[in-house]
């Protein structure tokens, strides 16, 4: 039988995001995207429109990315209090966002390759059918953007700003919306002005924009996955504050254990008796999102 003392060190590691609402949003957008994907692939195959068929498969990669996000939410929720994970499952969210960003890069690369091929070898397009289905896809994309749109996109509540899954999903539907707008523009120019080369050109432009969004998301999520430290100026301020309390920092590490939670490990030394609680208060002053603190006193 375990003594009561054997479990005193156990504390909550539930540092994930309360993502129930975001998870519901992504599920709705997943089904909308999947339905339009099937419609575009079917219509593209029937009409012989390679542009529409390619856009359908493009949306298919986004459906797969949404599935990654749904899995990330479910996994993080299932293991939120699992002690096998030293700092909880907060990073699963960033891992899902990173995977989705990689999927976006692959989509952009495929779009560039296909667009270059079509510039070199122009193909006939059934403009009427392609335009109708592209407009339907655009309407669904607008609906998806509205569903995933949150206050943080216009300067309000910043909850979703820290949720890389919802951010990745938002970028996916923005990418779909952008490519739909560019496709419709290119199809209209091709139909009424004979500028068929605009279709592959717009594909390249859209791919470059998607690549830029992907890079930003990869950079942001990888900083959490790779335990990037906080900026040096904050560490210097913490050091100065602790020096004022007659102690010296021998070693310090501060990193994110989730998108909105941090952990800190530091070793301090002093010739005077030290109270760890006062240093925790100092750390909290500079790191309000600090959820896990370990202090070694010499």
Automatic annotation (TrEMBL):
Domain (Cation efflux protein transmembrane) ranges: 27-226
Subcellular location: Membrane
SUPFAM superfamilies noted in UniProt: Cation efflux protein transmembrane domain-like (SSF161111)
Membrane topology reported for the UniProt record: Multi-pass membrane protein
Domain of life: Bacteria
Keywords, comma-separated and alphabetical: Ion transport, Membrane, Transmembrane, Transmembrane helix, Transport, Zinc, Zinc transport
Residue stretches spanning the membrane: 28-51, 57-75, 95-113, 125-148, 169-189
Principal subcellular localization: membrane
NCBIfam families: CDF, CDF_efflux_DmeF
Matches recorded under PANTHER family: PTHR45755, ZINC TRANSPORTER 7 (PTHR45755:SF4)
Protein name from the UniProt record: Cation diffusion facilitator family transporter
Biological classification of the source: Bacteria, Pseudomonadati, Pseudomonadota, Gammaproteobacteria, Alteromonadales
């Amino acid at each position: 039988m375990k003594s009561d003392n054997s479990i005193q060190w156990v504390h909550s590691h539930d540092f994930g995001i309360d993502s129930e609402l975001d998870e519901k949003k992504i599920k709705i957008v997943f089904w909308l995207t999947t339905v339009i994907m099937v419609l575009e692939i079917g219509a593209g195959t029937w009409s012989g429109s390679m542009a529409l068929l390619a856009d359908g498969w493009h949306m298919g990669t986004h459906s797969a990315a949404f599935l990654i996000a749904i899995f990330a939410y479910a996994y993080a929720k299932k293991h939120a209090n699992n002690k096998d994970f030293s700092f909880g499952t907060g990073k699963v969210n960033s891992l899902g966002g990173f995977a989705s960003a990689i999927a976006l890069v692959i989509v952009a690369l495929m779009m560039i390759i296909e667009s270059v091929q079509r510039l070199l070898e122009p193909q006939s397009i059934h403009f009427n059918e392609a335009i109708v289905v592209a407009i339907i896809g655009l309407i669904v994309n607008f609906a998806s953007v509205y569903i995933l749109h949150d206050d943080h996109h216009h300067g309000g509540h910043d909850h979703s700003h820290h949720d890389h899954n919802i951010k990745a999903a938002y970028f996916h539907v923005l990418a779909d919306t952008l490519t739909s707008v560019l496709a419709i523009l290119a199809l209209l120019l091709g139909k009424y002005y004979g500028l068929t080369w605009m279709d592959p050109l717009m594909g390249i432009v859209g791919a470059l924009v998607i690549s830029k969004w992907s890079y930003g998301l990869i950079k942001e999520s990888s900083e959490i996955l790779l335990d990037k430290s906080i900026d040096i100026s904050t560490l210097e301020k913490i050091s100065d504050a602790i020096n004022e309390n007659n102690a010296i920092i021998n070693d310090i590490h501060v990193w994110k254990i989730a998108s909105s939670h941090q952990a800190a490990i530091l070793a301090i030394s002093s010739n005077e008796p030290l109270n760890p609680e006062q240093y925790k208060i100092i750390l909290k002053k500079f790191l309000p999102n600090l959820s896990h603190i370990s202090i070694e006193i010499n």
